Hints:
about 350 residues; TIM Barrel; eight-stranded parallel barrel; 13 helices; 10 strands; about 10% strand
Amino acid sequence: MHICACNAQGEPVTSAALAVRLAVPSGPLFFPVTPYGPDGAVDLDTYRTHVRRGVEAGAAAVFACCGTGEFHALTPEEFEACVAAAVEATDGRVPVVAGAGYGTALAVHYARAAERAGADGLLAMPPYLVVAGQEGLLRHYTELAEATSLDLVVYQRDNAVFTPETVVALARHPKVIGLKDGLGDLDLMQRTVSAVRASGVRDDFLYFNGLPTAELTMPAYRGLGITLYSSAVFCFAPEIAQAFHKAVNGGDDTTVNALLDGFYRPLVELRNQGRGYAVALVKAGVRLRGLDVGEVRPPLHEPTEEHIKRLAELIEAAGELLDAADLPGAADLPDAADLPDAASEEQGA
């Protein structure tokens, strides 16, 4: 069994247990942003603070240096340093899954860097630029799975769209433990889930809703038996994300619909106002909540002042909604002004 890291008590965190640890939706899946300082360099101290706060707010896992974390904008050295910082900040409390992508050779390079940094698993993002057939995709992800001892979740979106038969073939590999869907084709997902189940190849294969602002489509995905999803909102409003997570997994349709109508749908409308807002707006939200994570790197760009103001209004309105419904809300977390800054937290760590 491969040991990736040890927590403060010296207890091992193992990649072999990754599927088991992710299978039960104990909390939102946290995809932290990557902070940059005034000079544009990665700010690892602030990154540790951001990750630590997410874990303390109830994240079930940390997905470091993935889409929300601007994987595309990081150098290999920055990537490895960030993954190591995430492993340090989580201290074995939850698994750390690192992004890996581009062409096969580079994806393998990033996967091995993540393994060196102590990650528990990999999220394999689509290959760069090219549109490959099913045979090429199968070979790409198989080579990536065999490059390290880490378990692998395959990310379906854009130029990496799999037939149900290809997913069955991937599921036969012992290190490929799941499929994250960023496509949103529910018919394809239904056929994929059915094909893997009918194949009998394994009964522990995981499925994730990986659409931007995945909460909006979770009622539909739950109809397919899919309970795991990525939550960008958790980065800047964990109290809202936690309330929704508890409601959607507890069958509380009243709360689910209230949060969808009062927060998530307006948020998606705002997100759709600008290209790249799926990342840039999240980073702006983290800044609004009191942690200076800097701006996004080009080719992404910052939201307009008007859109940031609208985001602040949505966060405030959602907090009022939670309070009015007597749900765990902003009152359960310290105000941003009461939170120690990154430097003071690092000194006390």
